[in-house]
Amino acid sequence: KVMKTKTKTKQKILKVFAMCILFLGNSHLMAQNTLPDDASTQSVCIGEHPYEIVPNPTSTYTWSIIKQGTGLPPPFGEAEITLVNTLPTYLIEVDFTIPGVYVLSVLELDDNSCEGATVDLTITVNPLPTITASSSPVSPLCENDDLTLNGGGAGVGGTYTWDNSVIDNTLFTPGVGTVIYTVTGTDANTCVNTATISVTVNPLPTITASSSPVSP
Fold first, then answer.
1. What's the pTM value of the predicted model, to 2 decimals?
2. Chain-centroid distance, C-alpha 209
3. Are strands 177-186 and 159-162 parallel, antiparallel or unpaired?
4. Is the dihedral of CA 66, 72, 76, 77 positive or negative?
5. Per-10-residue mean pLDDT for the chain, 216 residues long?
């Protein structure tokens, strides 16, 4: 009887172990619309970024994040994880506020209490560029004066896009009045930021001529 009990216990352990092997290892961590399932690294900009797995409906998942160089979770507010939804995909958003290298991890526990291998994604978070906006000549201007607007701060390979159909570093003639122009700068890491500049254009004086005394 003792031998039979031991055999049955061993069989149960092997059965649970086999079920663990069967159910675990199917999750893939990815950046939504950005990375393939098997990607393990990513370069992003400061801001919110979605990450997802294709879950097993009966499993539970635990997310965590570590900042490289410290081996510790980042301080509160630096890289916060928010759950968006659980099915049909398990989707979270991570709000990065500080540049650095982070490791985002997800751990699966199935309904047999079997724990899967941790799935990691290494994320390099790049700073946003400090974009500047300038004009030549400097505001205020007079009516019919030409103006050039220039974006700066995006570094080598950076690009600048203005609103109001303005082309960066290209002459145009603004209308009379005060207009706030916005430039969007994109750096080599595809990180984006904006800057604004106010331009005032004064109308030309209206000149009149008269004589004294007034001529009959």
1. 0.77
2. 62
3. antiparallel
4. negative
5. 46 41 51 62 93 88 94 95 91 96 93 87 96 97 97 97 97 98 97 98 89 63
Do 176 and 182 touch, CB atoms closer than 8 A? no
Preceding omega of 140 cis (within 30 degrees of 0): yes
Q: The tokens 């393990």 sit on which residue? A: 40
CA–CA dist 39, 159 (Å, integer): 28
| Paired strand residues for 119 | 106
Q: What is the pLDDT of residue 4?
A: 47
Confidence at residue 152, expressed as pLDDT on a 0 to 100 scale: 98
